[in-house]
């Protein structure tokens, strides 16, 4: 896909990995819809950063856990640009939930934000993409969706669902729309993560380093702007951690 002048929506792009993905796509000449929920200030900063690259950007607030608001988000993008070519489903929550602390509320909220919201964001986005001939969707999964780890069961299940959803959507939406996923490994550990534990993870990673947001962004750019013959694929970006 020639992405120059096209429009991308990156959910959760005011902060962390989502912001870096948005900036990387802007560096390829794309206009960016910056989505945020509670991070309005950082999202507005991201807009200014992206506009400085010579492309257009707008911030759009939306609680993706509230499905009717997703339709309004896509309608606002349609009103602003009249098109949508790329969707990156990056927004997610990461609640630490040991077995005895799992309850219905945390289960439902995790699935709503991490699995249900990406599906319905795609469902609404596809109608706008088809109007202009097609597009690309990249879902941000997690290597834990392939190899679960403890204390995050609702999160792990949601990311396993993202992987299956990606493959099913790729079949459903071909040939107009390519759908892939990026599954990061140890990238941007939680701020309160134990330094000794982080060092153990680094040593257990074959490439002997932790990942960065740039590693994830590069994978997204590859799937969006470099290749047009990949769909239904899960690109693991983990320094070899999955096989380590």
Written account of the structure:
- With 244 residues, this protein is of the alpha/beta class.
- It has one domain: NAD(P)-binding Rossmann-like Domain (Rossmann fold), CATH 3.40.50.
- Helices cover 46% and strands 15% of the residues.
- The protein has seven helices and seven strands, in the order βαβαβαβαβαβααβ.
- The protein has helices at residues 16-27, 40-51, 67-81, 104-131, 153-173, 195-204, 213-226, and strands spanning 7-10, 31-36, 57-61, 86-89, 135-140, 177-184, 234-237.
- A seven-stranded parallel sheet has the order 3-2-1-4-5-6-7, sandwiched between helices.
- Helix 1 (16-27) links the parallel strand 1 and strand 2 (31-36).
- The longest helix is centred in the middle third of the chain and has 28 residues, at 104-131.
- The radius of gyration is 17 Å and the shape is globular.
- The model has no long low-confidence stretch (mean pLDDT 96).
Q: Count of helical segments?
A: 7
Output the CATH topology: Rossmann fold
| CATH homology-level superfamily | NAD(P)-binding Rossmann-like Domain
| Oligomeric state of the chains present here | single chain
Rg on CA atoms, Å: 17 Å
Strand count: 7
Main sheet: strand order: 3-2-1-4-5-6-7
**Approximately how much beta-strand content do the residues carry?**
15-25%
What is the class in the CATH system? Answer: Alpha Beta
Overall geometry:
globular
Instruction: Provide the structure class.
Output: alpha/beta
Task: Tell me what the CATH architecture is.
Answer: 3-Layer(aba) Sandwich
Q: Unreliable runs, pLDDT <50, ≥5 residues?
A: none
The biggest beta sheet, please?
Answer: 7 strands, parallel
Distance between the termini: 34 Å
Mean pLDDT score, rounded? Answer: 96
Helicity level, as a percent range? Answer: 40-55%
The figure for the number of domains is 1
Query: What letter string, H or E per element, gives the SSE order?
Result: EHEHEHEHEHEHHE
């Amino acid at each position: 896909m020639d992405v120059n002048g096209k429009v991308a929506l990156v959910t959760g792009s005011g902060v962390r990995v989502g912001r870096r993905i948005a900036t990387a796509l802007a560096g390829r000449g794309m206009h960016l819809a910056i989505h945020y929920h509670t991070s309005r200030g950082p999202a507005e900063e991201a807009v200014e950063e992206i506009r400085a690259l010579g492309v257009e950007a707008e911030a759009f607030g939306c609680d993706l856990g509230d499905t009717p608001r997703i339709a309004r988000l896509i309608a606002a993008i349609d009103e602003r640009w009249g098109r949508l070519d790329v969707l990156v489903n990056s927004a997610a929550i990461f609640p630490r939930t040991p077995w005895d602390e799992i309850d219905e509320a945390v289960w439902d909220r995790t699935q709503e934000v991490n699995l249900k919201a990406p599906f319905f964001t795609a469902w609404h986005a596809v109608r706008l993409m088809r109007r202009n001939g097609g597009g690309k969707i990249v879902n941000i999964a997690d290597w834990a969706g392939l190899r679960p780890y403890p204390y995050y069961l609702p999160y792990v299940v949601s990311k396993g669902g993202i992987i299956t959803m990606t493959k099913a959507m790729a079949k459903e939406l071909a040939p107009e729309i390519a759908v892939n996923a990026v599954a990061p490994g140890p990238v941007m550990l939680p701020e309160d993560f134990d330094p000794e534990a982080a060092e153990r993870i680094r040593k257990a990673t074959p490439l002997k380093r932790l990942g960065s947001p740039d590693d994830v962004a590069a994978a997204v750019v590859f799937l969006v702007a470099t290749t047009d013959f990949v769909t239904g694929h899960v690109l693991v970006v983990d320094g070899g951690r999955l096989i380590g």
